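Appendix B. Chain record.
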Amino acid sequence: MIKYTQIIINNNGEMLILSLNEIFGFFARVLVGAVLPLALICGAAPQAGAFDLVTFDNDIVYLNQKYYLGARHYEVIKIIPIDNTDENLILAPSSLRYDKKYNRLLVGDYLSGKIRKYSLNNYKYSGDFAIEKYGKKLLGNPADIFISPDSRNYVVIDQFFNRMVFFNSLGMNTNITGGLGEAMGEFSEPCAVAFSGGRFFVADKYNCRICVFDASGYFKYSFASKGTADSQLYLPTAVKANSSGEVYVCDSGNDRIQVFEARGRYIKTIGRRGRSPGFFDAPSDICFDANSNIYVADANNKRVQKFSPAGDFLCEIKALESSFLSEDYKPDFYFKMPKNFDSNEINFSLGSLAMPVKIDLNNETAHLYVLDSEQKKIFILDCDNFNKGRRLYLDRNFKDAIKYLKIVMEENPGNLNALYYLGFCYQQTYDYKKAYECYDKIIKVHSLSEVEKHARYQLKKMASVNPSNYFDVAAENNGQERKRSAMEVTYNQFMQSAFEPTAFDRKRKEHFAKYGIEPPATEEVKVEKDMFIDYDDE
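Structure tokens predicted for this chain:
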């Protein structure tokens, strides 16, 4: 006789006899199966401990956009197609300039002779500059555009008609200067303009010189000549002036950047022909950021290179990477990247640059704009790696936060805030050894800050949930690894020296040479009992 039983008929008509314990177990499993998924959906996933997510007041220092200007890792956040489809209307892009006041990009079109406007609020075409005079079209090929700081005056270099065209924000022409020729104030396909110290500097391409005009468009002087020596130019394609008034010229025919004073005295040369970092193949444009870092569009090498103010190579932008944090893919981020430990891959590739001919920079957002004439696209890139890593950290997406925070530490090892966030991410992904290293570095700085206080707290917390000798064992393992590597070095040195002549070989050679006897091969020498005694005594 079975006590505390229940008879149940299943869907197949079979009779089941269940004990009371089995019945309770069945309902317990049903309850857990219903409640646990709901808890997971609500974010109550099983965790090793409570999340102690903290941020620091001085994060604002590293969230400042000028801080990002020293970065070396760029990602695409937006792509503006400018091919001749729908409302884009670009036939052959020839110039690019950022208009700060109206938050827009101006793109010159070679075939139509127009300047297209693209709003950076919605990233769409927003009209043209209809620059006309007495009903006649003024522009042939807008090769470069200058915008005054107040966005009230514009200057366009018209390469087709060999002149400078001045107009206001309404598109009304105010002045025209230049003409075809080699005389003073004349051009042979001018292609770039810069403004510094109240003067315009124009790259006169086929006359291989830089022409200087005052703010009203009157010719003042020119410098440089055709050639390959220092201070000489061959087919200059771009000219820009930095904050110090130095004039940088893309000497495209000589594959280099030349630097001059405003009066034309030669200062230095950056780079030469090649494909390695710091070398060029037909550089086509140049710009500067607020920290005076130099950006060069290296057209034939299909990349943009970044240099320090002193001209030292910093990084190159060739492969186009993006992430689900970018403007175009942000909805996908929230769908594909739930707040958990093991997220999907957050980064992906968008190919690479094909022909970057024009570049410009927004110093307030640290956004870099790259015009690719072959792909007919404008790529907008940013480098706010600390902000991205911090956002992922706050979203508890620790695995992907590690990627960006590691980049930040490579670019700025003194960023203790990023180091703490990195250590915390390692801690929450159970990589306690690396977390310990991050916290230990913070403590050794002795900054006496909130960051150090939280680092000490996390170390105590890790020690409380790990074996008492965990970090000692980790240190011991590190010591053993160092010993093992030292033994490998010693062994390699021994194996290398095994093929070198020994003291016995040298003495033996001297002995036979003394009596003019040809020494027998080593294999023929028979080792005898006291063969080495005489040599040792000597």
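Further analysis of this model is presented in Appendix C.
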